[in-house]
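INTERNAL TRANSFER SHEET
From: sequence group
To: structure group
Subject: Solute carrier family 15

Please process the attached sequence and return the structure record in the designated field. Keep the field labels unchanged so the import script can parse them.
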Amino acid sequence: MCLLTLLVSLPSLKPPECHELDVTKCEKASTLHLVVFYGALYTLALGTGGTKPNISTIGADQFDDYDPKEKKYKLSFFNWWMFNIFIETLFANSILVYIQDNVGWTLDYAFPTLGLQIFVAIFLVGTPFYRHKLPTGSPFTKMAKVIVAAIRKWNNPIPSDTKQLYELDLEEYAKKGRVRIHPTPTLRFLNKVCVKTNSSACGWKLNPVTHVEETKQMLRMIPILVATFIPFSFPVQWLHK
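Return from structure group:
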């Protein structure tokens, strides 16, 4: 955001203005302009992609799912979280568009940049007081094990009784501060991974139901990820102005 603010503020970083009706006659943006512009956008995209999915997760980690009182507070946290996001989008965007049209781009970018710096400072000050959960392995490794095991057991039948599927004891998840997930009917072919056979051992041939359900959750997110590519693309029309 700091780089984008400088980009719209410093004349040397702006592409030449064009007053021609035919944009093909306008002077093109230099290599420096393009490098700074796309560098700022990709830096912002990487930063946003790295923080947005983790902020809500950190918030959820502050509550103990095994404490009924804290579990209730956790649900309230996400309600207020989404409420604030929509209120911010409604009012903040309207105000910033007004500033953009009537004052200028510099102040329009300066406000969110300043706000971002304040929120980062608050986050860093509160870091010692947060609950920190140590990582317990890569989720991609678990997904790979589930998918490989499903391919290996492609011809295996799935029992109609879900109680016959392999699952760890509840105490095993409680020790790690995790919640056991019950089997779901969607992507049912992955349930083959939980079927015990004579040659299957926990790993690349056998996985508990919770690991399979976590993989299902990730796979169900793929259509949402693809659908959000276009609406979240940043317009670059101002480069030609």
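Handover comment: The two ends are 21 Å apart (CA to CA). Residues 139-225 form one domain.
Transfer complete.
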